[in-house]
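Both lines are retained for reference:
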Amino acid sequence: MSAAPPSPLPLVFDAPATKTPPRHLADLDPADRKAVAQELGLPGFRVDQLARHYFGRLDADVEEMTDLPAAAREQLGTLLPPLVTSVREQVCDDGQTRKTLWKGHDGTLAEMVLMGYPDRATVCISSQAGCGMACPFCATGQGGLDRNLSTAEIVDQVRQAARAARDGALGPDRRLSNIVFMGMGEPLANYKRVVAALRRITEPAPNGFGISARGITVSTVGLVPAIDRLAQEGLPVTLAISLHTPDDELRDTLVPVNNRWKVGEVLDAGRRYAMTTGRRVSIEYALIRDVNDQPWRADLLGKVLRQRIGTKRVHVNLIPLNPTPGSEWDASPKPVEREFVRRVEAAGVSCTVRDTRGQEIDAACGQLAAASREK
């Protein structure tokens, strides 16, 4: 008999009011930088020099930027306030998984995870501190939403991860190549800042890090209007839809935003995104024992994806659930997982199981922040 999911918390789309983070270089587009240079009484090329250090060399300490005059360094230093400060790090998988808990200017806690693979280095970053989507099996959702992260707070996670990879945190000769917006928060509920961050990440120096949009994945529980809006931004990032079940009855509880946009509406938005961008959509599916892992749900998942998106435009990414402490939720047994994969593939839809990382280090998103709050 299927386990009954607990009643979810109310959805929160708007972050609580909070003290605005100090202005940072990564918040500024090129036009903004020119205006700030005038405000500081400096020629525009000085701010561009600062940007080349930050985005090109991954530096954030103006005292190390010796090509800048001392007086200019003092003024320009106001554009690099410390925003993302590491307070705790956990390492596992022979040093190839490094989870960092960081603190914002106001004490807000969020997380990022740097992961090394044979063919790539990936960072999983947060877009909000906490999350208002209230998915009951997610540690972040259980904690609620603290606030949106600023563009610079998002971007600086990438800079710190890129610098760590460059400096040998994952071994020699590593370069950050992939970014997933799958940490704390619902990225499309912080839309403007996330899109601004995507532009900083993908544009070449001095305007950004120059990381390919094709190496970036943005996850969403299914905010349909924002999916359609993202498709028009000219940013060919991969869209990952956290679906977790193909039927509305269960998804209304597992992913409460389904009470606003049903499975069919979300998948139709996914099809529009794939057709507009030319990018295959990823369907994220956390496999939960006796909740959403039944054979008939695998059959239905394959059927609705084939009908709504098309087999060439979609891929299913099964996620073995990483249980949170005290949770009634548990991962599905391996034989059940294998049968689920077989049935989805029988419908003509590609399906793989995500590589599990960090089993021993508060690995589920939100666990490290929650544990730190309890101390």
Q: What stands out?
A: The chain has twelve helices and twelve strands. The two ends are 38 Å apart (CA to CA). Residues 151-166 form the longest helix (16 residues).
